[in-house]
Amino acid sequence: MNVYPARSNQIAARMLGDEMMIMSPRDATLFSLNEAGALIWQSADGHTPVSEIVQRVCQEFDVEPDEARADVESFLSELAGHRILNFTEEAQ
Amino acid sequence: MSALLQSMNSRAASLNIPLGVQLDVTYRCNERCVHCYLDHDDHGEMTLEEIRGVLDQLAAAGTFFLTLSGGEVLMRRDFFDILEHARKHLFCVRIKTNACMIGEKQADRLRDLGVESIQVSIYSHRPEVHDAITKLPGSLKRSIEAIRRLKARGVKVIIANVLMAQNFGDYPGVRLLARELGVESTIDPTITPKMDGDRSILGLGIGIGELKAVMHDETLVGDIAEFCAPPPPVDSDVLDELPCSASHTYCYISPYGDVFPCVQFPLPTGNVRQQAFLDIWRYSPAMNDVRSIRPRELPVCSTCSHVGGCTRCPGLAYMAGDMRGPSVQDCEKSYARTGIPSANMMLRAAVRHDLVQIHL
Ligand code: SF4
Ligand code: SF4
């Protein structure tokens, strides 16, 4: 089954140089994402499944698929924990 | 300030990015606060389309923190269209308002649009004092009701209290009220001269004795010994430090499109109706002049023992006649904090002394 991560519409975000700054709506905590994090974040558009995000990361950063999948999944669930994004089972 | 926010600020400064911008969407207001520095007539505010265009430009320029203020923002019927556009660009939006016009429907929209915080001006916990300052009967009641509405929806609210002779004794009451409402509160002892240069409203401010009391109130400043400690020694780090954020990572845009280094620094640098925002931000000679200021070249402040710990506001100094001069309000704060007179105070005392001798 495919899972689609979607950015929360409550967050604030901006690229600052090559880093993505994000502010979580829940507690005004700031996050800074590096290039790989920013790519994953930008791909979390509600209609790109996790599997495709993993592929993009593999293409861009030359990592093995298994390693990329583990990294992407743990990164996405960390962001979800801060309510920066959520998961849906159907593409939006 | 969190370490990440600090590093974000210094990155923005080195990349010349206007990380924070305050945009006043109107100077019109439903209140007539006695200390207000604005002219409330509409002299041709930017239209919704113009403001949307400015927001597009700010997002492209890298602005993250956007403060929407006024006047009273809700005097604009299209305020929520502006806010919607701002949030589409994912700005971290802070709003300053007196909140009198925030009913249930408006509170719902503010929650749904994900604003970071809403700052509400409250001058006293007593209606007779607050309403005498705003000159709007019933305003305290309405502002408090709106704060409750916002709180009930989980929106972060900050009460901002400007201290004047008229409401000085009530700041503990306002802080108590904030605690009851479950919101943060700040106090500000600075009165800003009117935009047209009229300095008469400065007389409404608190005196040096009251300022001292505020600076030595541990419920406000925490560790008094630390807060009121003598300034750090003046060395070359201090003299070459970047001053405040105005023109470095922050600027202000008026409802008429004028761009200034800060809301409290009305030095004309350009107008977004005539020029692209980034051209003003990057290339305006006035903006770059402000950017070039370092404590080392300030004629009076560089000789002052407070220079390393002073909150010298170049905007207030500009309004007093010279942006490289001392800011009298900050001299008073430095003195009230530490008991050590500033270089500016000593200079003025010497001049007064000379004048007395001439008269004799
Ligand atoms: S010190 Fe004055 S000019 Fe600088 S950011 Fe503060 S208010 Fe603005
Ligand atoms: S205390 Fe006054 S003279 Fe001294 S640095 Fe501050 S503004 Fe300048």
Task: Give structural notes.
The complex is a heterodimer of chains A (92) and B (360). By secondary structure, chain A is of the alpha+beta class. Chain A has a single domain, classed as Coenzyme PQQ synthesis protein D (PqqD) (Arc Repressor Mutant, subunit A, Orthogonal Bundle), CATH 1.10.10.1150. Chain A has a three-stranded antiparallel beta sheet with strand order 2-3-4. Chain A has a two-stranded antiparallel ribbon with strand order 1-5. In chain A, helix 1 packs antiparallel against helix 2 and helix 2 packs across helix 3. The radius of gyration of chain A is 13 Å and the shape is globular. Chain B is 41% helix and 11% strand. Chain B is globular. In chain B, strand 7 and strand 8 form a beta hairpin. Chain B is built from 16 helices and nine strands. Chains A and B meet through strand 2, strand 3 and strand 4 of A and helix 1 of B. The complex binds iron/sulfur cluster (2 copies). One iron/sulfur cluster binds next to helix 15 and helix 16 of chain B.
Topology at a glance:
The complex is a heterodimer of chains A (92) and B (360).
Chain A lengths: L3 E4 L4 E5 L2 E5 L6 E4 L1 H9 L6 H12 L3 H17 L3 E4 L4
Antiparallel strand pairs in A: 1-5, 2-3, 3-4
Chain B lengths: L2 H13 L4 E5 L23 H14 L3 E5 L9 H10 L3 E6 L6 H9 L4 E5 L5 H8 L4 H14 L4 E6 L8 H11 L2 E5 L19 H8 L2 H4 L2 H4 L8 H5 L9 E4 L4 E3 L9 E2 L5 H7 L1 H7 L22 H6 L8 H11 L4 H17 L1
Parallel strand pairs in B: 1-2, 1-7, 2-3, 3-4, 4-5, 5-6
Antiparallel strand pairs in B: 7-8, 8-9
The complex binds iron/sulfur cluster (2 copies).
